[in-house]
């Protein structure tokens, strides 16, 4: 279930109530007359089955409440209500499969912005990855994958394409382009500083690295793995499965590839720099493609359920 809170101008409240009372997927309806101060109006509270949240939001927006009032929707952790259970049964499909488009758009929209925090996290992750490459340490590589925030803009890019939001697409591409460029420059400088301090050497990069040399040797499996990870990542976001998202973050070598690009540039090894850059491009492209296709399928399925429910 999801918790719905609406601030409605008094002249619109009866229309809102009529709709919500007639909607089988809505339960536990409460009205506070004149309780809202800014914007002024009535406060309407209800529980909505997740499967029908898109339809309810669509109708409320058609009443102009997103402009003349307010609409808020939150996930409910625990709901003990027989009426709520009936509402869930009346809604088409399964809650775990439902994508609440306004929710996912706002969540990914926040991740698409280029910020100091984003640059710091990506730079730190790339520096860790660069050290992991030189030490041939998979543990550091995995740590860098977890720290890296790059999946946020990739997810936002996918949502922007599906929802036709040019500004979101532009912000996501800007965050990814500038973010990786800054992270690589920072890692080049940190590698040179560590080299000057005698903590790392060029021989570490040129020596045998059986555990991490896959990072700069892309192949067909690189694309397949990134594509599958992109599907899993979008599913984890649309269904709020955070544990699955962590698995996605440690399965794709985006940040490690950027780290390898940086240390290869620092030590003047162009073949590794090129191979790592190719790996990075393949993975970013595969994740974005998978995200767009996954969201397209989810949208198609939700549109199929809607006519069936009305029938």
Explain this structure:
The structure is a single chain. By secondary structure, the chain is α+β, with helices and mostly antiparallel strands. The longest helix is centred in the last third of the chain and has 41 residues, at 270-310. α6 crosses α13 (255-266) and α8 (151-163) packs across α14 (270-310). It is built from 14 helices and four strands. The two termini are 23 Å apart. The chain has a four-stranded antiparallel β-sheet. Helix content is 66%, strand content 11%. The chain has helices spanning 10-22, 53-62, 65-68, 82-90, 101-111, 116-135, 138-147, 151-163, 166-196, 202-206, 220-238, 242-249, 255-266, 270-310, and strands spanning 2-8, 26-37, 40-48, 70-75.
Key attributes of the depicted protein:
alpha+beta, 311 residues, 11% strand, elongated, disordered C terminus, four-stranded antiparallel sheet
Proportion of residues in helical segments: 55-70%
**Which stretches are low in confidence, meaning pLDDT under 50 for 5 or more residues running?**
307-311
Q: Strand order, biggest sheet?
A: 2-3-1-4
Number of strand segments: 4
Task: Characterize the overall form.
Answer: elongated
Strand content: 5-15%
Indicate the radius of gyration in whole angstroms. 24 Å
Mean pLDDT: 86
- Number of helical runs? 14
Distance between the terminal alpha carbons, to the nearest Å? 23 Å
